[in-house]
Write a structure and sequence with these properties.
Helices cover about 45% and strands about 10% of the residues. It has a six-stranded mixed beta sheet with strand order 3-2-1-6-5-4. The chain is α+β, with helices and mostly antiparallel strands. It contains twelve helices and six strands.
């Protein structure tokens, strides 16, 4: 059941991302049966590494398997975004001519550069839409890769990994956290590979500030479980779901998407997630 958000979201917004996540989950299940990635010593890496697992060890994704998942994502977008159907069909015709191996390698490190400069006008899609499409096809692979480390990351403490807003598995930046109802620990959430890792409860994840007088939280009336932690030193903010207010497990991916009103509130108050 969908929760009632304090701000009306664009029609179909949550349905789109919920269905997209469901499709990615289905693809992840299928991939988990046929794909096996190398695993590494988590604690050793967290304690000594300054780069994510994927940056350090790489990720070998079979281009043919990736193309299969990409086709599923394109079909979904054709159905859910009729205005893009013709362009998505053009994109499908281009797939055999693309260097998917190179595109995958660039996506993994979030550095697409000018890969789509020539493709975008041919298929009549923006580069942003192309990156979105190809990125969504990669995410089931990233989640299979991250899966073996889920429980160990939850057991670990914040003293080992020194980059609180960077995912130690895939290297993506996180702007969302949850506070556990069982032990009051704060866990950052990666919406790319679905990893969670602990960070200090009272610390700005952007600049490291831990002075209580300059860290506070903001929320929308009658929406106590979802709030912003804001830092007056660097003007950074972090969206948070507080399980202690609701005492139930939620879909953190959807929670991050449906709280866009908190992003707007933060920006209105002069705070930033430092993504720019």
């Amino acid at each position: 059941m969908k929760r009632e958000t304090p701000v009306t979201l664009p029609e179909g917004f949550l349905d789109f991302f919920t269905e997209l996540e469901n499709i990615q989950n289905q693809q992840q299940i299928l991939l988990a049966k046929s794909v096996q990635f190398d695993t590494f010593d988590l604690k050793k890496h967290l304690g000594s590494g300054s780069r994510s697992f994927i940056e350090l060890h790489g990720l070998a994704v079979d281009p043919l398997l990736y193309k299969s998942v990409l086709t599923v994502i394109i079909d979904f977008l054709k159905q859910k975004r009729p205005e893009l159907k013709e362009s998505m069909e053009k994109l499908q015709l281009e797939l055999d001519r693309l260097d998917l191996k190179q595109i995958i390698a660039s996506l993994i490190v979030s550095d697409m550069g000018d890969h789509f400069n020539e493709l975008a006008p041919r298929v009549e899609l923006t580069q942003e839409m192309l990156v979105f499409t190809f990125e969504q096809a990669l995410r089931p692979f990233l989640r299979v890769y991250a899966r073996p480390y889920v429980q160990d990351l939850l057991k670990d403490d914040h003293h080992l990994w020194q980059f609180p807003n960077i995912c130690p598995i895939c290297g993506s930046k996180s702007n969302f956290s949850r506070v556990s109802s069982s032990d009051n620990r704060r866990f950052m959430f990666c919406d790319r590979c679905f990893s969670e890792w602990e960070t200090r409860y009272l610390q700005c994840v952007h600049c490291g500030n831990d002075e209580p007088s300059s860290i506070k939280y903001l929320n929308v009336e009658e929406d106590d479980a979802y709030h912003l932690y804001v830092c007056d030193k660097c003007k950074g903010y972090l969206k948070t779901y507080d399980e202690r207010q609701k005492t139930k497990i939620i879909d953190l991916y959807i929670a991050n998407m449906e709280t866009i009103y908190l992003d707007l509130l933060a920006r209105e108050k002069g705070y930033t997630n430092h993504d720019d």
